[in-house]
TrEMBL record:
It comes from the Eukaryota. One of its GO terms (biological process) is cellular response to calcium ion. Pfam families: Copine. This is CPNE5 protein. Residues 1-97 form the Copine C-terminal domain. It comes from Asarcornis scutulata. One of its GO terms (cellular component) is plasma membrane. GO terms for molecular function: calcium-dependent phospholipid binding.
Length: 107
């Protein structure tokens, strides 16, 4: 949402608002490290042990994952938490989503 101190969005409306705002200000560049953001959201999800909140991490990327091993580990560690991870590839870069998914599954 552009606020490093409180990066959360509430509901679909909050996500769409943050996305539209970011289109005007974000420039995508590498390396593309997913593990830090996955771990950050996982910590937030783990902090709500009663399951009263569900977290959705939307990653919009224009490249291949640079930290695949760390990203796999972060996703495995977050697997039992109340969260989903959605990865969307955008832009002109060659982005093979199937290869990314195979990599995340360890294939």
């Amino acid at each position: 949402n552009g606020d490093a101190a409180n990066p959360s969005c509430s509901g679909i409306e909050g996500i769409l608002e943050a996305y539209h705002r970011s289109l005007r200000s974000v420039q995508l560049y590498g390396p593309t490290n997913f593990a830090p953001v996955v771990n950050h959201v996982a910590r937030s999800a783990a902090a709500v042990p009663d399951g009263s909140q569900y977290f959705v991490l939307l990653i919009i990327t224009d490249g291949v994952i640079s930290d695949m091993a760390q990203t796999k580990e972060a996703i495995v560690n977050a697997a039992k938490l109340p969260m989903s991870i959605i990865i969307v590839g955008v832009g002109q870069a060659e982005f093979d989503g199937k290869a990314v998914l195979r990599g995340l599954r360890g294939g």
